Every structure is written in structure tokens, then in C-alpha cells.
Amino acid sequence: MKRLFLHQHAILKRNGLIGLLLAFCALTMAQEKRVYLFPDFVKTMIKYKGSSKFLVMANYDAANQKVMYKQGDQLMELVSPQLVDTIYFGGQKWVYHQSEYCQVAAGKRDTILIGWHITKVHEGYVGAFGTSQVPSQKVQLGDHFGMGGLAGAGGGMYNGSFGVNDDDGEGRNLDVWKNKNENNYYFKRQGKEYKVSNLKSVYKAFPAQKDKIKEFVTANKLDMMSAEKAVQIIHFCEDL
């Protein structure tokens, strides 16, 4: 892990950015609210262009679109993403595409890239007026998304909510948070790349097939609020 930090340090030193970047990272990391895609930091292989490889314990911050890794007791951000070739979170393949890290998923004819964007939305408090008494539960991923695709992993989250915070010790005044999914999906059809993030963008990408897509979405009760459902819609679009 120390080698990875030194490798990043060397890259930045060549560009004269060390002091500025470290000061900036320290400031922003202290202020950022993180939503990790995986329940825990997992063994991660980072492969740079030019064949350099580093094994670290890492996680993906889906709220800020950053790869975070541990160096001893310190939390570090993976910088210079344009120099990264591939990242394997516990064996799950990721690449850097269109200025964001993307998980590689299987499409019908080509790969689908998922750029995870999850934000935490405050719902209120358990027991507060107008708020459900039942805390929201974490939604589990299938076999090919997030932690669900990692060996030995117990599933991850892609949508819905993620537990509660700030217990007062007697079960009162618990914060209830909901994770809002705003993922980007990249896929190719007939040699052209498409980027979609919601149903509106899907209909805009395929105006001539809008009615067919709407019929399919309604009949199968689909939406873009989960990666698994979004991929089903994309598979349908690939066949149009």
C-alpha cells in the first residue's frame, strides 16, 4: 500500500502538484459525506497503464465518485484516474470511462458500464411525526452488481435506503436516511455509444422506439432506480 502512495506521489511530483493536491485532499476529505458502495473495504487490485499493479484494501465512494483506499490507519484517495487501466474490487472489474469510474457488467452484445452515483437523503427521524416507525432496510444486489458479484461477499446496495444513525441509547431520535440512485449507464448499439441515467434519457435516445420501450417497462414493472432493472431495460434497447 505504501508503494501505491509513492507511485501516486511520483506522478504528482512530475507535474509539480504535490503540495497543492495534498492540501486540497485533506480539506475536501474532511468535508465530504461518503456513501460506500461495498459494506467493507475489500482486497482490490489496481492496474495502471504501463503494467504497474498494486494490491490495497479499497472501497468506492458512490457519493463523490472516488476510489478510497487504506494506508495503515489513514484513508487515501486514488488520484490521477486517467492513468488507471483497470481496477478489480475483489475480482469485480472496473474501468475509468467518460471522467468517472465504472463497473463493467455484461450486456447482450457488448459490455455495459455502470457509473455509480448514490446520494444520502435525510428522511427525518424514527418516531417523528410523519415518519415511518420502521427503519428502512438495505437493499441487496444480485450476483453481478456491487458486492453481490464479489467472491465471499454478502451483497451490497444499489437503491432504497441504508439503515439509521444517531441512536440516543434508548431508541429515540434516530436519523432515517435514504440512498438515492442516480447512476449513469453506458452501452453500445450498432457501434454507437449511448449514455442514459433515467427513463426520460432512454426515451430521448430512442425516440422512434419510445412506445415499445414504454410498453416493455410497464409490462415488466421496471424503472431505472436499481441497476438490475436498468440493465433489463438496456438489454431490451440493445435488441431494438
Strand order, sheet with most strands: 4-3-2-1-5-6-7-8-12-13
Which structural class best describes the helix and strand composition?
alpha+beta
Estimate what percentage of residues fall within beta strands: 25-35%
Estimate percent helicity. 10-25%
- Order of secondary-structure elements: HHEEEEEEEEEEEEEHHH
Mean pLDDT: 75
Main β sheet profile: 10 strands, antiparallel
Chain oligomer state:
single chain
| Poorly predicted runs | 15-28, 128-144, 146-168
How many angstroms separate the termini? 46 Å
Overall 3D geometry? globular
Number of strands: 13
Q: Counting H and I runs of at least 4 residues, what is the number of helices? A: 5
Radius of gyration, in Å, reads 20 Å
Give your account of this protein's structure.
The protein is built from 5 helices and 13 strands. The protein has 240 residues and is of the alpha+beta class. A 10-stranded antiparallel sheet has the order 4-3-2-1-5-6-7-8-12-13. About 22% of the residues have low confidence.
List its traits.
single chain, 240 residues, alpha+beta, ten-stranded antiparallel β-sheet, three-stranded antiparallel β-sheet
Task: Summarize the entry for a quick read.
With 240 residues, the protein is of the alpha+beta class. It has helices at residues 2-14, 18-31, 199-205, 210-219, 227-238; strands spanning 42-48, 53-61, 66-71, 74-77, 84-89, 92-97, 100-106, 111-115, 118-125, 161-165, 175-181, 184-189, 192-196.
